[in-house]
Amino acid sequence: MTVVDWHLIRHAPVRAAQEKLYQSADEPADLSDTANLDRLCGHLPQGAQWFSSPLARARTTAEALAARMEVRPEITTDDRLREQDFGDWFGLSFADLWREIKDLPPHNWSILAADSQPPGGESFLSVWNRVGEFIDHFNAVENKKSRIIVSHAGVIRAMIGHILAMSPDRALGFALDPLSLTHLQYSDRDYRGGQWRLVKMNETFGE
């Protein structure tokens, strides 16, 4: 039996993210907590295959981590690892956002239900579908190296939801902090218990 490790990392924090939605789809990351980056890097395997969302906050986080590895890896960006696009709602305060969403189907743990689509943007269901394509594609690849994926909370929620055979709305309930590490394992044998397991989720390394 061959087991492949998948290490999922949410990007470093984005300033002012708690007061409103990100100002745009492609906001920069705050990489000033170098000690946290050092500690996280110590939990990553050498010789892995690296992937990143093309968005700046994920890509620069991946580059900062890769620079700390013994042998600096190449990083492949993949558009399927982008965060959900909130379209016309970027930059809104949460008070203004509430006026936009108050009549939409409610969700306990997310501002939107999985099938709700912002004007000019996309639904979490769209993220779910492209993340599923990414997982299926790289499970079919013969390369058995560990995979390190630097991406976004929504993308990581979708990955966990896929491997646990959850609904998209249930997967939206996972809490994922910036610079957190989630570890999955995939087996090439389809025995009882399935081919995937969740080893750990949302592990952080700040002081």
Helix segment tally: 6
- Give me the strand/helix succession: EHEHEHHEHHEE
By DSSP, the count of extended strands is 6
At CATH level 3, the topology is: Rossmann fold
Write the CATH homologous superfamily: Phosphoglycerate mutase-like
- How many whole angstroms does the radius of gyration measure? 17 Å
What CATH architecture label applies?
Answer: 3-Layer(aba) Sandwich
What is the CATH level 1 assignment?
Alpha Beta
The average pLDDT value, as a whole number, equals: 94
Structural overview:
The protein has 207 residues and is of the alpha/beta class. It has one domain (3-203): Phosphoglycerate mutase-like (Rossmann fold, 3-Layer(aba) Sandwich), CATH 3.40.50. It has helices at residues 34-41, 56-66, 94-101, 124-139, 153-163, 168-171, and strands at residues 3-10, 49-52, 75-77, 147-151, 181-187, 196-203. The chain starts with a strand and ends with a strand.
